[in-house]
Amino acid sequence: MRFATLMTVAALGLAAAACTKKEEAPAPVAADATADQAAAAAMDASATAKDAADTATDAAKEAGDKAGDAMKASGDAAAAATEAKVDAAAEPKK
User: Fold this and answer.
1) Is 35 contained in some domain?
2) Does residue 20 fall inside a structural domain?
3) Residue spans with biased composition (Low complexity) (predicted)?
């Protein structure tokens, strides 16, 4: 008796699974569409990240250029001050 009940339950389970699979046939299509959307979103995010990195790189380069210009100006000022000191030391004192 238990065996017959078990077999009946198993048969009903297989039938239910077969019916469920037929009803869920469009799901892989939806899953493919979702996967495509996720891939497109990932590509958009990657492009956005690249743009942000490029912008940050450009800003860092510009800041580096400005820092280099400031260092050159500082060096020029130091050289001028040194030259002025040398000239002042070379002048005879009155």
Assistant:
1) no
2) no
3) 44-58
Size of the chain in residues: 94
The helix/strand/coil state of 43 is helix
Considering the entire predicted model, what is its pTM?
0.47
CA 41 – CA 92 distance, rounded (Å): 78
Is the dihedral angle over the CA atoms 14, 16, 20, 22 positive or is it negative? positive
> Has residue 58 been placed in a domain?
yes
> Per the structure block, which two tokens stand in for 63?
């800041």
- Rounded CA separation 83/77 (Å): 10
- Read off the pLDDT of residues 24-76 as tens digits, 9 standing for 90 and up: 555 566 667 788 889 999 999 999 999 999 999 999 999 999 999 999 999 99
Domain count within the chain: 1
Opening angle at CA 70, ends 85 and 87, nearest 5: 10
